[in-house]
Specification:
With about 425 residues, the protein is of the alpha+beta class. The chain has helices at about 5-10, 15-30, 35-40, 50-70, 80-85, 110-125, 130-160, 230-235, 250-255, 290-300, 305-315; strands spanning about 185-190, 190-195, 210-215, 220, 265, 270, 275-280, 350-355, 380-385, 400-405, 415, 420. A hairpin with a 2-residue loop joins β6 (about 270) and β7. The radius of gyration is 21 Å and the shape is globular. It binds fe (ii) ion (FE2).
Length: about 425
């Protein structure tokens, strides 16, 4: 990784942390600026949460793990809120059931905004005096909130897609920097023993380490993610009606749920955060499950990459580049430009890998409640790499591991093909 010699690396670290805290907290509010209290309170499925809940839960995280635990004399803004807005931390006690988050019409969106302002001011006042351990938790809280910003966007998209009126969260048109359909090439990957995982030179979630060795067989990666145009070919060729292409669990899922297209497709249009739009054939396909990605790869005579193949290829790319979330506004993946080397490694769409989300050798969870952050979810899920158009810029790294269950597809999920050489 290139050494950091720019001015930002020389500024006071607490000042830099404060700026990122303020910017991150501000972006969350920007994302809900066009939503009514009703928009922000509804829940469209158990996997999704209301926008208001995301705003509240990220605030609970800072109030609990920073203010309550590290600021003497801090009193909770409202002692009833931890029960409502603890997500899954058993160590923090009982909580409101996840599928019923949409029933929380109170507190109101404005009351949650007031709570946010209160907590932001208290964290801002405390930052200069926090211990290194507490500052690490502020850093974790910022990254946690960025994760929820992406979830907030995908959850509101899922909610609005249920409305026959097809409402737009933002009227702004979807950016179309490049529209041409770029050819797909095979790019030979690294082979042999490679170092993989977090190298300890900046923030990383616990599941990204320890750094260790992985063995890569001779392989190639596709130069870009699979496009909507290619997905149309898969559909036209009977991809969704050919059981031999599918994993057994995937076929059962597709039959039970009547799956025949990616999520949000209807005729030649798909639903976006700017409402219904014509499908762009050159843009990466998105809102597909692991099962669909795996079936497509089988149809294409290829396979999904392993997470280690992906990481080795991504190491030379800028993780803050590509199509990522910079500010509130409609997001939808756009086509890649050029057609030679690897493109869209970061941003655009999360890429399903064939790797199970399991601990790396030597992985240990942290003591206390934050030890529940990742480790306890290492069962039955697959790793996705590279981030999406809805991932806040600054959040990603080559070692970043996202994870979802194989049937889930309301995130901006896509795929990049790989093959053995
Ligand atoms: Fe969370």
């Amino acid at each position: 990784m290139a050494s950091r010699t720019d001015a930002s690396a020389r500024t006071d670290p607490i000042e830099a942390l404060t700026r990122r805290f303020v910017a991150t907290r501000g972006l969350s509010l920007d994302l809900v600026a066009t939503l009514s209290d009703a928009d922000a309170s509804a829940q469209s499925m158990p996997d999704a949460s209301p926008a208001k809940w995301h705003l509240a839960h990220t605030t609970w995280f800072f109030e609990t793990f920073i203010l309550r635990d590290h600021v003497a004399g801090y009193r909770l803004f409202d002692e009833r809120y931890p029960y409502l807005f603890n997500s899954y931390y058993e160590a923090e006690g009982p909580r409101h059931a996840r599928p019923q988050r949409g029933l929380l019409t109170r507190p109101s969106l404005d009351e949650i905004r007031d709570w946010r302002a209160h907590v932001d001011a208290a964290v801002g006042d405390a930052l200069q005096d926090l211990s290194p351990a507490a500052l690490t938790l502020v850093e974790l809280g910022i990254h946690h909130e960025q994760q929820h910003q992406e979830l907030l966007l995908t959850d509101i998209k899922h909610l609005f897609a249920q409305n026959p009126l097809g409402p737009a969260v933002w009227d702004a048109p979807i950016a179309r920097e490049v529209r041409q359909f770029s050819a797909m090439n095979w790019v030979k990957g690294a082979e042999g023993i490679v170092a993989t995982g977090d190298g300890g030179d900046g923030f990383a979630f616990d599941c990204e380490g320890p750094r260790h060795e992985a063995l890569l067989a001779p392989h190639a990666l596709a130069s870009r993610p699979v496009t909507n145009g290619e997905w149309h070919e898969f559909i036209a060729d009977g991809g969704y009606r050919t059981p031999s292409l599918w994993l057994s669990d995937g076929w059962a899922w597709a039959q039970a749920d009547g799956i025949e297209t990616p999520a949000y497709w209807r005729d030649n249009q798909y639903f976006t955060l700017a409402g219904w739009r014509d499908i762009d054939p050159g843009a990466p396909v998105t809102h597909i499950s692991f099962f669909e990605a795996d079936a497509f790869a089988a149809w294409a005579g290829a396979r999904l990459p392993t997470e280690f193949e992906w990481e080795a290829a991504a190491a030379s790319f800028d993780p803050h580049g590509g199509q990522q979330l910079d500010a509130a506004g409609a997001v939808q993946p756009v086509a890649a430009g050029g057609d030679t080397d690897l493109q869209q490694m970061f941003g655009s769409v999360w890429e399903w890998t064939g790797s199970a989300y399991r601990p790396y050798p030597g992985f240990r969870t942290a003591p206390g409640a934050v030890g529940e952050y990742n480790g306890k979810f290492m069962s039955g899920q697959f790793v996705l790499r590279g981030g999406s158009c809805a991932t806040p810029r600054g959040h990603l790294r080559a070692s970043y591991r996202n994870f979802f269950y194989p049937h889930q597809r309301w995130q901006f999920t896509g795929l990049r093909l790989a093959k053995d050489l």
